[in-house]
Amino acid sequence: MKLVVxxxxxxxxxxxxxxxxxxxxxxxxxxxxxxxxxxxTAHKLADKLVKLRIFADxxxxxNLSVKDVDGEILVISQFTxxxxxxxxxxxxxxxxxxxxxxxxxxxxxxxxxxxxxxVEHGEFGADMQVRLCNDGPFTVILEG
Length: 144
Hints:
Blueprint: E1 2-15, E2 18-23, E3 26-32, H1 39-51, E4 53-56, E5 62-65, E6 72-77, H2 98-113, E7 118-121, E8 128-143
Parallel strand pairs: 3-6, 6-7
Antiparallel strand pairs: 1-2, 1-3, 1-8, 4-5
């Protein structure tokens, strides 16, 4: 599983011109599921994400988690994180099968819901437009 985590002041996702998920301060997370991923992988990375300390404390140090700042999380499925770009045309054989990937996407979000105030999401497999204001900018990659 691969996560691209962006610390944001706001974010939203739209499908067919209609906003289906939006957040204020928190994380926009692009989530890719690989062929070898399991529910254990999803739980581990969800827990890691919630504990990740990349928000500034009163001294300006990145010492606070999304939970500490009462932040929100917007999760977007993105199988293209598993693109093999060794040739000019990306291959996606390392991405998880759609049914398994969708299940693990749901497992990941359910784990987050038990830990943070608000979790929003995109639509699995849809053509989505994602908007965000990256705060910092601050972007990290988590893999499990």
